[in-house]
Specification:
Structural class: alpha/beta
CATH architecture: Alpha-Beta Barrel
CATH superfamily: Copper homeostasis (CutC) domain
CATH topology: TIM Barrel
Radius of gyration: 17 Å
Number of strands: 10
Helix content: 25-40%
Number of domains: 1
Shape: globular
Length: 247
């Protein structure tokens, strides 16, 4: 069965690669090394211009900071506004996630962000993998009318969460999409896709480093660098899936 491709990108160059490989969507973000943060309004606008009318849909990650997904009042206010701004800029959907103090999904917070999306597609991100019960989280996402969930099956890599991914697909029963993501490469995408997921999500990234010599932040060891989407890595995933479908 054909499977949708979603590429996590940070800029127009990533959107161009997603378009070249025929991806259905991009998840637009920044700071992938931190798990992704909300991109700027200008980044959203430029990504949409690059995608054009016949390119991949642009879905914007809304995450105000790194760390956990238990947010305070100010952070919810920022996320709600970011959802509205992203969609006002022309984004096709948003990617969200939040938890309460127990680690389960925050129903009220998700409903608030869903309502801010005003009917646009909403994806639940990998917060699902940090909840005590991913299947219960899936049920809640479905009840709230979200479009899809992104999951690695509760593991650090999707390849290590295959059993949970299969269970999510069964529980979804076609009423909400299940998209597998985290660490997916051309070497394992066919195995992950065989769980029956509706889509695979990958960043196909490489790191560009430079010795800056001066620390610029608390996590910086004096080596500057950034991650970029790599066309060869993205193509290897497409080729692997095409080869499996032709076999």
């Amino acid at each position: 069965m054909p499977i949708d491709l979603e590429v996590a990108v940070q800029n127009c160059a990533g959107v161009r690669i997603a378009r070249e490989i025929g991806a259905a969507r991009v998840e637009l973000t920044q700071a992938l090394a931190l798990g992704g943060l909300t991109p700027s309004r200008a980044t959203i606008e430029l990504a949409l211009e690059t995608a054009g009318h016949d390119g991949p849909e642009v879905h914007v990650l809304v995450r105000p900071r790194a760390g956990d997904f238990h947010y305070d009042r100010d952070e919810y206010e920022a996320m709600e506004r970011d959802v509205r701004h992203a969609l006002a800029a022309g984004a096709h959907g948003v990617v969200i996630g939040c938890q309460d103090a127990t680690g389960t999904l925050d129903r009220d917070g998700l409903a608030r962000l869903r309502d801010a999306a005003a009917g646009a597609a909403v994806t639940l991100h990998r917060v699902i993998d940090t909840t005590p019960d991913p299947l219960a989280a899936l049920h809640l996402a479905r009840e709230l009318g979200l479009s899809r969930v992104l999951s690695s099956g509760g593991a650090s890599r999707a390849l290590d969460g295959l059993d949970v991914l299969r269970a999510l697909v069964r529980e979804a029963a076609g009423e909400i999409e299940v998209m597998a993501g985290s660490g997916i490469s051309g070497a394992d995408v066919v195995t992950v896709a065989a769980t029956g997921v509706d889509a695979v999500h990958f960043s196909a990234k490489r790191t560009v480093t430079a010795d800056g010599g001066v620390r610029l932040g608390s996590a910086d060891e004096g080596v500057g660098g950034h991650e970029v989407t790599d066309l060869a890595a993205a193509r290897s995933i497409v080729d692997a899936l095409a080869g499996a479908q032709a076999a």
